[in-house]
Amino acid sequence: MGDYGTLKKALIKKALLISLAVACIFLALNHKSAAKGIALGSLFSVVEFKLMALRLERRFVRTGRSKDFFGLFGRFLILSVPLVIAIKLPSINFAATVAGIFSVKAAIYYHFLISNRRLSLKPGDNRT
User: Fold this and answer.
1) How far apart are the first and last CA of the chain?
2) CA-CA distance, 114 to 69, in Å (whole number)?
3) Fewer CB within a 10 Å sphere, N or C end of the chain?
4) pLDDT tens digit string along 65-120?
5) For 125, phi and psi rounded to 5 degrees?
6) CB atoms < 10 A from the CB of 15, how many?
């Protein structure tokens, strides 16, 4: 699988854990509609990330650019589905759905900015 596959799995796992933690916090605060929105947005965000990763793998094999527009359009279409669902159903919070869509991006920032920095600091290093 290599480093690429391991990174993909780690980012997806972190994104789902972040969204699960936030959804549990909203459930503890008795905001069920926000928890549903976070879950819906993060699930579609993970699906979009997986499709984007598959597209990247195919990009290295083929050099055709004719389907690049459909790939971008398809990603926008996938990310619009949870937004339309959140607008149509009053039991799902729209703002929480938008926040859930950013769960993979939050996992990427966490992985590269916070997690790796903490691991790279030496015990005697006083940088914070």
Assistant:
1) 34
2) 34
3) C
4) 555 656 778 888 888 999 999 999 999 999 999 999 999 988 888 888 876 665 55
5) -80, 130
6) 25
CB 73 within 8 A of CB 16: no
Q: How much helix, strand and coil, in percent to the nearest 5, is found in the chain?
A: 80, 0, 20
Residue 120 amino acid letter: S
Degrees to nearest 5, angle at CA 91 with 88 and 94:
60
Can you tell me the distance from the alpha carbon of 58 to that of 54, in angstroms, rounded to the nearest whole number?
A: 6
Q: How far apart are CA 72 and CA 44, in angstroms?
A: 15
How many CB atoms sit inside 10 A of residue 39's CB?
22
Task: Give the model confidence (pLDDT) of 15-69 as tens digits.
Answer: 999 899 999 999 999 999 999 999 999 999 999 998 888 887 777 776 655 556 5
The torsion angles phi and psi of 90, rounded to 5 degrees, stand at: -75, -10
Whether the Cβ atoms of residue 24 and residue 86 lie closer than 8 Å to each other: no
Q: Domain residues of the chain, as ranges?
A: 2-120
Query: Using an 8 Å Cβ cutoff, are 30 and 14 in contact?
Result: no
